[in-house]
Write a structure and sequence with these properties.
alpha/beta, D-Maltodextrin-Binding Protein, domain 2, eight-stranded mixed sheet, WH_DNA-bd_sf, GntR family transcriptional regulator, transcription, transcription regulation, DNA-binding
Length: 308
Amino acid sequence: MVNPTHFDLQSLRVFLLVAEHGSLTKAAEHGQLTLSAISKRIADLESVTDCTLLIRRPRGVELTAAGRGLLEHAGRVLDRVNSMANEMSDYAVGVRGHVSLWANTSSIVQFLPVDLARFLDANQAIKISLEERSSNEIVEALKSGKADLGVFADNVPAHGIERRPYRQDELVLLVPRAHRLANEEAIGFAQTLDEDYVGLHAGSSLLARMTDAAFDAGRPLKVRIQMSSFDGICRMIEAGLGIGILPSAAIRPELVAAKLRMIKLTDPWATRTLWVGASDSATSAPEVIRLFDFLSGESDAWATGASL
């Protein structure tokens, strides 16, 4: 039986290097090691595992089945070791807490940069890892404990998650200035469904909201092109490829001033709530509670008109 205490991290790193380059010589060059040192590390691993890991070929090496198995495990082990080293480095320089925050595009574009800057200025011993994800992905990550906190849209079911209001945003219709609807001051979504739309990627809560509203109106939503960013949508609308619906605060003023027109949507769903939710497994950590309280407190400050 293989003894797990006999594995050497440096030997695993060398093995990954050899697997990546498919050659002992190239691995030695990239790892700044001698060929004999590389060969010894591989021989040590083969001794520990009691398996042949590589087959020598005229133009390099090929992994055996055992080698491919070791490659998969070695990659995960070294990733975990690197993650551990990074976390310990944070503690060494004074970081005393880490929060994994997942957020949807709307909150990242409109609100989180300023809010997180204020929070981190007052809590310099806390580190935040921010990931941009769809609202559906965020809710699943909170349920599984993959994320500590998440900011997501109100049309995504979030049963079993502790959540609080974070912000409200207004969705508006965006059209080119020369478009036939450009002179409208306000409009219902159903009145726009003859037009081609530029929308967000599949899976976004905003696209789901628009698709549901079109279904309720008994009409199809004609999405001509899909983008992954608000800026990209604006550029496509500017080029005449369709119209779009975006949060008003996410649209850069210079674009509206130049070639685009924002039109108020009269539908109730155009005013939406962004929620901040917490994972059950994370709410005992003081740094998570502190950020959760801060972000939900921003909802109160925003609602009362306090400066941000």
